[in-house]
Amino acid sequence: MEWNIPTLEELTDKIWRCTACGNCKAAWNYGPPPEFGEICPAMVEFGFEGNAASKGKMAFARGILDGSLPWTDDLLQDMYQCTVCAGCQSQCELDHKPFIPEIIEAMRRKAVEDGVGPMPNQKVIVQSMRSFNNPYQGPRRARLDWAKPFKKAGKPLKNIMKEPAPVLYYVGCTGAYNLPTRNVPQATARIFQKLGIDFGILGEDEICCGSTSMRIGDAKAFQRVAEFNMELFKKLHDEQGVNTIVTSCAGCFRAIKKDYSLCKDYDKMFEGIKVIHTVDFLYEMFKEGKLKFKKEVPWKVCFHDPCHTGRHLIKFEVDEDGSKLWEGAYVQENLEDCLYDVPRDMLMAIPGIEFVEMERIRKDSYCCGGGGGCMTGFADWAAKNAAKRIEEGLSVGADKMISICPFCHYNLNAGAALLEREQTLYDLVELIDMALEEDVSGKTVY
């Protein structure tokens, strides 16, 4: 398959559009009155201009391109100490704006191509992808362990490789292998069974979406698994009747919707297939009256917006030919794909829920600190950053924090552990599962 993954050299013009104004270092609300808050996790922690959102990273990119900045351990560390959360992209108002995360990841791709990247702690991901097709060093036989309770209860999950179904639940590696986050796929499967959804899973045949590889610059590993997945999805559509792929993982959702679209065969491979996040899928059923909450969940909660279901899905309009403003001008952004309203609407519909907002939300949300390979490369910093976000939730009086990403689930709970608090982060599907009391047949599930 042919891919259009840009090199650092191909992004040269975009790199030079940065004026180093520094607005990217903070989340601005122009008011009145004007306010600002921290937005770049690396700048907050390290305070060095090289870590300062896109301002510092673009200086690195220019030096790498013209050869004045050779690869050193310090340069690599500063380059990889970035969650690629796109917080800086939200703040930039220059023609540089639409390309910032891609430039940062292109630097990492060049580091990998030059044989110096990724970081030592992240090389376990590279090896694990080669050996196991997942970043967790998890053997294929263990990928289905999360589903054992369903088989034990006499409600085994359909293997979509053997039995047809219109809906494929693509679990993702984090939900399958990361023990603390197995509640997410388990809650999702319980909900689907209660609602009578005809769905199946890939089980041991599922492999990584490739998101983690892409984030750390290993484009070859990403392409390998992405091509396998696209061919498999097309086969499932043609032979098993799959027309909808549902995923609970923000990283998988972003990868399949956005990263896979860099393949020139994307439209052909996904013809007749809808890719949707679990919460959006359930929201459609909620609007149709097929999902009704029967049980109270008496919690006071806030919502954490994951980067990969928010800022990373913003569509940017660029004036390519100069017909609107000037050639290459950033025109405007479209937030229609961002999951901002849907999870909040679902939360507030659950009986007993009292919903409060944190200060930094939606496209100005503060990253949990786990993305961009940082949860593996810089685990201590990732947890420390997560603790800051947990504290923000506590400051508005929330008993629990809710999100829709297994990565955020794991890392924010690691942050809560640093604060010596009990589990504070729940996935929204866990709450939906709590509020659904009976299955479609009217029999009590619990």
Provide tags for this entry:
446 residues; alpha/beta; Rossmann fold; 4-stranded parallel beta sheet; 12 strands
Provide a descriptive summary of the structure in words.
The protein is an alpha/beta fold and 446 residues long. Among the domains are: 1-117, no CATH class; 121-290, Rossmann fold (3-Layer(aba) Sandwich). Helix content is 42%, strand content 10%. The strands form four sheets. It has a four-stranded parallel beta sheet. A four-stranded parallel beta sheet has the order 10-7-11-12, sandwiched between helices. The chain has a two-stranded antiparallel sheet with strand order 1-2. α3 (53-66) packs across α6 (100-113), α10 packs parallel to α20 and α18 packs across α19 (406-418). The longest helix has 22 residues, at 219-240. The chain is globular and about 65 Å long. It starts with 11 loop residues before the first helix and ends in an 11-residue tail after the last helix. Mean pLDDT is 93; it is low at 440-446.
State the gist of this model.
The chain is of the alpha/beta class and 446 residues long. It is 42% helix and 10% strand. Residues 440-446 have low confidence and may be disordered.
Note the topology.
Layout: H1 12-15, E1 26-29, E2 35-38, H2 41-46, H3 53-66, H4 73-80, H5 87-91, H6 100-113, H7 123-132, H8 148-152, E3 167-170, H9 173-177, H10 183-194, E4 199-200, H11 211-216, H12 219-240, E5 244-247, H13 250-259, H14 266-269, E6 274-277, H15 278-287, E7 300-303, E8 315-319, E9 329-334, H16 341-349, E10 354-355, H17 374-377, H18 379-395, E11 400-403, H19 406-418, E12 425-427, H20 428-435
Parallel strand pairs: 3-4, 3-5, 5-6, 7-10, 7-11, 11-12
Antiparallel strand pairs: 1-2, 8-9
